[in-house]
From TrEMBL:
Gene3D superfamilies the record matches: 2.60.40.1080, 3.50.30.30, Peptidase S8 propeptide/proteinase inhibitor I9 (3.30.70.80), Peptidase S8/S53 domain (3.40.50.200)
Name of the protein this chain belongs to: S8 family serine peptidase
Assigned protein family: Belongs to the peptidase S8 family.
Annotated Basic and acidic residues bias: 272-281
One annotated GO biological process: proteolysis
Biased composition (Low complexity): 1202-1211
Highest taxon of the lineage: Bacteria
Organism: Cytobacillus depressus
UniProt signal peptide: 1-30
Keyword Magnesium part of the UniProt annotation: no
């Protein structure tokens, strides 16, 4: 919003601006920095009340409760879209209340209520005019809501609150259609199918709809309104049942033509004016199709040859267009449509839309509640923001409505054998199809022999120029454009089928891409092929034409009934209510889409159908079923229908999906229409100031606090609908609990006679450890106990096993029991309780963007932004300035000089407060004063409305306000310039030292000098000050006319300069450093040391121009010498997460089961289920127990022999040290002097079986020649290369050895599982004065290149590892695969081996980040929370990501330095990585000496760290990057992160989120962190 200003609390000066995003940490709050010692007394409640009395007399009440918190920061002339609520109850609410009481309003009573509501609206509008409120009125609501929409000038929002009858003003939010983007899904559990079936809309048969159709229930007489983007009125699917519609989207300048109120057509391409783009920033098209698809799922009449048909094809269908261009619309239009639907007596309304926050108390939610009470069944999509908790939005949060989640249908994928012949080349292999044509038989489509044509490049439209593929099969490479576009271009050029082969950079390369797109009318059959096969066929086709044919078509089918990851989860707030209520298939749903026949008369609708995914697609399934249920039970209320849908739903896997993921389960249409009994959970709901009855199928215990023993009772009313009675059992399945919490049923068995009331009591003992996350979740089951049949089955932990010879694998066999229930006699009700009670009110993330300020108007450090979040409503609250230097000063002698904000109440939410240099003194409040120079903290203190706790406080600081410049005094003593700085920062540091908050003075005073000699002005050079402000500069020999200018800039931006005439001395050379073991460190000279001064030093060391010499690499990650798996780090490790407690399903019968091997020459199995691989081959293991059986397929491969390509592997010999090859000085000199050579190369003998060690010796004079050049020295031994950088040669020569020798050795690596190279050992020794010294570490990395075998499957998973002789483990070194060799760098020599791991995790098989996670885990950069699970949606702390960065970049680690006070030496897993990342400039602290290691890392922090890492490795990558991308929430990105975010986006390392937002304060998940790290490493060329 343009010109956004701040709402006034008590003047235009002191202000708050509400923000809705999470806020990034910057400074610690009081409890994090030890307030007990720093602020021993804190704020007193009596002082707060005294201050409140003063403010009360000044009329400083802010009136927040009536104005929605999102509107409290607005002022100015700009118009704001709002919804105004009025006090008189609307007719739907009154009608619903009467009906629930067993009464019914008469027509005259309804008219009287409506008249009263209308009259109030007229009166309010008149008063608004009389008060001078500028507004433009929109829709009015008088049925489901009493109020109206309007555009009001921001300055007039406060005036609205003074209009009699106005109860609430809330923003008119934008709502979107809830369609999810299609994602490949090819890893679900597979079930074999014997024949290829015709493709159909699988929901119909899967949900049992046909049984209802056979009974005559197809929706006849039921009125259904679809509130969506409209409908294609010309689509044949609605030829007989579309009865009418309305338009609730105003058409102004943003549309090319007007729209009639009764025209519900979809937004057409012809509606787009020239100034609006075809696609918005989120990729949504201007024209729409969503509503037509939703309407088709409900009511398509089946006017097609493919079996596509709606759930209720004979309903009376109405289309209400509430979403316009780009699928968006205003909440007011939706409420107006709900209002109209109730007036027009719709039986069912479908809202596949949503947005905004998770709240039960907005206008849309109230409208839904009232519609339900007025008799209209309201079905709403929860959203597509899963899988995290609480991700649903309005209006699905309505407590009385039916919220719907998204599950999967069974889905079929196909494969077939592909035969290619091109000249002498022949190929035949079974391949998967990534895409097929909807409704077509593959065998018929691909019958015969076809010409195969290789399409050049990547299959873009222009790549077909001069290529004839008509009636042929196109061979296309993956890359650059989407798979669906490749298919489309091939089809448009006449191809009858396509093969898309992977490319070297593609996911899963060199194997197939592994993509499954499903079927569609726009697809031709498209096969998935590997890089290797594709390249071979392309090469064969270069020599002539080729043919292709297909055979042996087969298929596999997923089982369905998985909750989609994208499906939004509950609970709704603030009541911890269970949402969704029920789930339905919403993944890959085939339905009608528009062809815009009204605008394009020749439109062809024969294939105007497509697959969409999202809760938008699940919701019309429930709406259609609700119509059938209502038809079958015409006397039912909406609450009867809601309860029937819930009671009879099929529970999905409760170990995978809790009550907030699946609600009551996946809908069972037939059961819902014909229940024998219904069980109503009796509850109430607060509905816009009225408490109403809430009958539902879920039991909500809400928030309960365990500060005492609790016993909370809810009631369930069981009704006999068929008059059959019977004996019923009530059982409880507690899927999650805390402490001794349990559910007690007062009637665990009962005889049903009409109705039965059941008391369900939650009990739990007092528990001080209960946190807000403590929960009791589960299901209450009510069943007859009749006709139940328990069957057992066997389950094996793995049914397809791949081994290499000599590997072992332990099977785990369990016997599981399944209860086959009687026909619709068992019902279930989910329940939920939050046992931590409502969390105590907190002030969180109390932070400021600048801690050093100078309010002098120079544009430098002139302002700061204070941000924080309060988690509960506050009463009296202040933000004050506390004087650290005078803690007993101020009007109340409590150190507070005045306030920045004071208020009588403040709603929960996130806030920001600009600090611009003015405040109000407690002694003299008017006029506002300038904050004087000083050392302060900014404190917030408040009384809470809840009293839990009574008072909350937070502070941030120390904060320096300073306008004065530093003072510089300096004189010459011989050739040294000595001086002293006088400044307040020194005084403040002395004060802060008493509290342990002192800082390094060089962080606050930045000193530099400029030397001018003979009128030649040099560069500005920084130098370090001593902690008392003194300094000494060694400047060398200078003349009397030379000058040095000393510049000091303080942290607040104040700058001082002084110029002095000078003279000086010189620097010494570094000595050779020898340790007690005879090892030497080759280090740089003094100019390469860190600029950090050491304690007790008198001389200032000048800032370095090069990085500090790298130290020896510490242990990062171990791999056991068998490499059977990559173990997690210790329990305190950087990526260690606690696994969710989960009980094992079934009885473990591994030791009791019997095992039979089909071919025991391939594997054997012990009596305890241990498999041992014997030789290569395939076989089956049959497992039997208790009359049940299970089969395990086993494939054994030969263990690869690892050897250098140019020689056989030497045996286990102990060779003598070889005689070194002497390097010829003349040859070296020639290469050094050759301008065409960039390096000096020395060839030495290759490694062989008889000579597994070789050496080369360089004499001192030859070393001197090399050192004087700038060229590196390369030793080549066969396929092994060692590149020694010139800097290392210089340092080595500087220590004047007599000679230096490099030795390369090789041994077998067969003991290391996954090894793809031999073990190579490298050493460098130096001889000086007859003593041989081992060079242990280098000042600059040496590059090594070693050969690897041709068995590599995925080059990205290949890494070099250092063999740590002391730990017998492998330590990650990294490296890049390049044509059968691995190139890597190291700062020390030892033994190295190249390994290819293939690590995966069970919980990422369907995850969008599966590939990058597997790559990083295989390289041992990251690990899982267990060996088999990764926890991709878990959160990542700052410490964990810092350690990951250090590991990935192989940063040099050192012993504990204590860089950060909150990263202790005892945190051994973290401190080496954190301190290494700090030294590299990748991470910084969040306050003085504080890192906040356990804070969850945010998106902006992770982007910043990643870009610092990129720049650390290759600064050129960050240059000339397109940083023009903008986000709608750019203003929310912290100043520290803005440049990094732009660069990361420009490089493609990170992307925005839907709605053109970056969401900088959102926490990053483990999966997101892995992807960002992967992308960064990819950009750095690590893969």
């Amino acid at each position: 919003m343009k010109g956004k200003k701040i709402i006034k609390f008590f003047s235009s000066l002191l202000a708050f601006v509400m923000v809705l995003s999470l806020l990034s940490p910057f400074q610690a709050s009081a409890n994090e920095q030890g307030t007990n010692s720093f602020k021993p007394n804190g704020q007193s409640e009596s002082n707060m009340k005294l201050k409140a009395a003063v403010l009360e007399q000044l009329n400083l009440s802010d009136g927040l409760p009536k104005l929605h918190k999102e509107l409290q920061d607005l002022s100015g002339d700009e118009e704001v879209a709002v919804i105004v609520h009025l006090s008189e109850d609307p007719v739907a609410l009154e009608k619903g209340i009467s009906q629930l009481k067993g009464k019914k309003l008469t027509s005259s009573q309804e008219k009287a209520i409506t008249d009263k509501v209308n009259q109030q609206q007229v009166t309010v509008n008149k008063e608004m005019v009389s008060k001078g409120i500028s507004f433009k009125k929109g829709y009015s609501f008088n049925t489901v809501l009493n109020g109206f929409a309007a555009k009001v000038k921001a300055d007039d929002l406060d005036k609205l609150l003074k209009v009699k009858g106005v109860t609430l003003v809330e923003p008119d939010v934008t709502v979107y259609a809830l369609q999810d983007s299609k994602t490949p899904n090819n890893t679900l559990e597979l079930e074999k199918i014997d024949k290829v079936e015709a493709s159909m809309n699988t929901s119909i048969s899967f949900l049992g709809i046909e049984k209802l159709w056979k009974e005559g229930y197809e929706g006849q007489g039921i009125k259904v309104a679809v509130l969506d983007t409209g409908i294609d009125t010309k689509h044949p699917e609605f030829a007989t049942n579309l009865k009418g519609g309305k338009n609730f989207v105003p058409h102004g300048n943003d549309y090319a033509r007007p729209r009639a109120d009764d025209d519900p057509s979809e937004t057409s391409p012809l509606d787009r004016p020239a100034h609006r783009p075809k696609f918005d920033a989120s990729g949504r098209s201007f024209y729409t199709d969503h509503g037509t698809h939703v309407a088709g799922t409900i009511a398509a009449i089946g006017a097609n040859e493919y079996g596509i048909k709606g759930i209720a094809p004979k309903v009376d269908l109405y289309a209400y267009r509430v979403l316009g261009a780009y699928g968006s619309g205003e909440n007011s239009g939706i409420i107006a449509a709900i209002d109209t639907a109730v007036k027009e007596k719709m039986d069912v309304i479908n809202l596949s839309l949503g947005g905004g926050s998770n709240t039960e108390t907005d206008a849309g939610s109230f409208a839904i509640n009232n519609a339900m009470m007025a008799g209209t069944i309201s079905v709403i999509a929860t959203g597509n923001s899963g899988p995290n908790r609480g991700t649903m939005g309005i209006p699905a949060t309505a407590r009385l409505g039916i919220g719907v989640g998204n599950t999967t249908n069974p889905e079929t994928s196909y494969n077939g054998k592909v035969h290619v012949k091109a000249g002498d080349y022949e190929y035949s292999k079974q391949l998967n199809l990534m895409g097929t044509t909807f409704g077509q038989d593959l065998a018929a489509q691909l019958n015969g022999e076809f010409e195969l044509v290789a399409v050049p490049k990547v299959g873009e439209a222009t790549d077909y120029n001069g290529i004839d593929v008509k009636g042929k099969v196109a061979l296309i490479s993956r890359g650059e454009i989407a798979f669906v576009d490749k298919i489309a271009f091939a089809k448009s050029n006449g191809a009858i089928a396509a093969i898309i082969h992977n490319f070297d950079g593609g996911t899963n390369a060199p194997n197939e891409s592994g993509i499954f797109l499903g079927d569609g009318f726009t697809f031709i059959p498209t096969f998935d092929m590997s890089v290797t096969d594709g390249a071979a066929i392309r090469e064969a086709l270069q020599n002539g034409s080729g043919t292709i044919s297909f055979s042996d078509f087969d298929s596999s089918r997923t089982l369905g009934d998985e909750v989609s990851d994208s499906s939004s989860r509950g609970p709704s707030t603030p009541n911890f209510d269970i949402k969704p209520d029920v789930t339905a298939p919403g993944t890959d749903i085939m339905s009608s889409v528009p062809a815009y026949g009204a605008d394009f008369p020749d439109a062809d609708y024969s294939q105007s159908y497509d697959r969409f995914t999202g809760t938008s697609m699940a919701t019309p399934h429930i709406a259609g079923i609700a119509a059938l249920v209502k038809q079958a039970n015409p006397d039912w209320t909406p609450f009867d229908v809601k309860v029937a849908l819930s009671n009879t739903a099929k529970l999905l896997n409760t170990k995978k999906y809790d009550v907030f993921s699946q609600g009551a389960g996946r809908v069972d249409a037939y059961a819902a229409a014909h229940p024998r009994v219904l069980a109503y959970a009796l509850d109430t709901a607060n509905n816009d100031r009225e408490v109403v009855e809430n009958l539902k199928g879920t039991v909500t215990f809400g928030h309960q606090k365990l500060d005492k023993d609790i016993s909370v009772t809810k009631q369930i009313l069981v009704k006999d609908l068929k008059g059959k009675g019977g004996e019923f059992n009530v059982t409880v399945d507690m899927t999650k609990s805390f402490g001794d919490a349990k559910i007690v049923i007062d009637k665990p068995t009962f005889t049903l006679d009409g109705e039965q009331l059941i008391n369900v009591t939650l009990t739990a003992s007092k528990n001080a450890n209960a946190k807000p996350s403590a929960e009791a979740l589960g299901y209450i089951h009510i069943s007859t106990g009749e006709n139940d049949n328990t069957v057992t089955s066997l389950s094996v932990n793995e049914t397809d096993i791949a081994l290499t010879t000599d590997d072992t694998k332990q099977l785990k066999v369990t016997e599981e029991e399944t209860v086959i229930e009687g026909d619709y006699l068992d019902i279930s009700l989910p329940f939920a309780a939050e046992l931590g009670g409502e969390a105590p009110v907190e002030i969180r993330n109390f932070q400021i963007t600048e801690t050093d300020l100078s309010f002098n108007g120079d544009g430098i450090k002139d302002s700061a932004l204070l941000t924080f979040t309060v988690t509960g409503d506050l009463d009296t609250n202040y933000i004050e300035i506390w004087d650290i230097m005078n803690p007993e000063g101020g009007a109340y002698e409590d150190g507070y000089i005045g306030y920045l904000h004071a208020g009588s109440s403040l709603a929960a939410g996130s806030y920001k407060l600009p600090i611009t240099g003015l405040y109000r003194s407690w002694e003299k409040q008017d006029p506002p004063q300038e904050i004087p120079d000083g050392l302060y903290t900014i404190d917030m203190s408040a009384l809470t409305k809840s009293g839990n706790p009574r008072m909350v406080e937070a502070w941030v600081g120390p904060i320096v306000v300073k306008k004065t410049k530093p003072e510089i005094a300096a004189t010459f003593e011989k050739e040294n310039l000595t001086g002293n700085i006088t400044d307040k920062y020194l005084d403040y540091n002395d004060e802060l030292a008493q509290y342990g908050l002192d800082y390094n003075i060089n962080e606050k005073l930045h000193a530099s000098y400029v030397l001018t000699t003979d009128d030649d002005t040099g560069e500005e050079r920084p130098f370090q000050l001593e902690q008392d402000g003194s300094f000494e500069l060694e400047l060398g020999a200078l003349t009397e006319n030379d000058t040095v200018k000393v510049v000091v800039v303080d942290a607040a931006g104040n700058k001082a300069e002084a110029t002095i005439q000078v003279q000086g001395t010189a620097n010494p050379n570094p000595p050779i450093n020898e340790d007690e073991n005879g090892e030497i460190d080759i280090e740089g000279d003094a100019s390469e040391e860190a600029a950090e001064p050491q304690a007790g030093e008198n001389k200032v060391k000048m800032a370095s121009t090069e990085a500090e010499a790298l130290s020896e690499l510490k242990l990062i990650s171990k791999i056991d010498n068998k490499m059977s798996n990559v173990p997690s780090v210790s329990k305190e490790g950087p990526v260690r997460y606690l696994a969710t407690d989960e009980e094992d399903a079934g009885k473990d019968v591994t030791n009791e089961a019997s095992y039979t091997v089909e071919d025991d020459s391939i594997v054997t199995v012990s009596d305890t289920g241990l498999i041992t691989a014997k030789k290569a081959g395939k076989t089956k293991i049959t497992i039997e127990y208790g009359g049940n059986g299970e089969t395990v397929n086993v494939t054994v491969s030969d263990r690869p022999v690892v050897s250098p390509p140019d020689s056989s592997i030497p045996g286990p010999v102990t060779p003598s040290t070889p005689t070194p090859v002497s390097i010829d000085k003349g040859n070296i000199t020639d290469q050094v002097n050759d301008p065409d050579k960039n390096e000096v190369k020395v060839e030495i003998p290759g490694l062989t079986n008889s000579q597994p060690k070789v050496s080369a010796q360089v004499q001192s004079d030859t070393l001197e020649v090399l050192a004087k050049s700038s060229k590196p020295l390369v030793f080549q031994s066969g396929n092994v290369e060692v590149t020694v950088p010139n800097k290392l040669l210089k340092n080595l020569a500087g220590n004047t050895p007599d000679s230096a020798t490099i030795t390369i050795g090789v041994t077998k690596s067969t003991d290391i599982n996954g090894a793809v190279s031999a073990i190579y050992e490298f050493t460098i020794t130096a001889v000086k004065n007859g003593q041989t010294l081992v060079v242990s570490r280098f000042s600059e990395p040496v590059q090594l290149s070693v050969p690897v075998t041709n068995t590599v499957k995925d080059p990205r998973k290949v890494s070099a590892y250092y063999i740590n002789e002391s730990t017998k483990g492998l330590e990650y070194v990294g490296g890049k695969y390049e044509k059968n060799k691995l190139v890597f760098k190291t700062n020390h020599f030892s033994k190295f081996v190249v390994v290819e791991n293939a690590k995966t995790f069970a919980d990422i098989q369907k995850h969008w980040a599966k590939d990058p996670i597997e790559v990083l885990a295989s390289r041992t950069i990251t690990s899982g929370n267990t060996d088999t699970t990764f926890n991709p949606e878990g959160k990542v702390t700052r410490a964990e990501f810092a350690v990951l960065m250090a590991r990935a970049l192989i940063l040099p680690t050192e012993s504990y330095k204590g860089t950060f006070k909150d990263v202790k030496e005892s945190k051994a897993w973290a401190y080496p990585g954190i301190e290494a990342a700090y030294r590299a400039g990748i991470v910084t602290g969040k306050a003085k000496d504080m890192f906040d290691p356990d804070a969850i890392i945010t998106r902006e922090e992770i982007a910043t760290m990643v870009m610092r890492a990129v720049n650390y490795q290759n600064a050129s990558l960050g240059k000339n990057v397109d940083t023009s991308t903008t986000f709608a929430d750019d203003h929310s990105i912290g100043s520290f992160a803005k440049d990094a975010v732009k660069q990361a986006v420009g490089l493609g390392i990170i992307i925005g989120k839907p709605g053109n937002k970056f969401d900088p304060k959102a926490s990053a998940t483990r999966a997101e962190a892995a992807v960002l790290l992967y992308q960064a490493l990819d950009k750095l060329g690590e893969f």
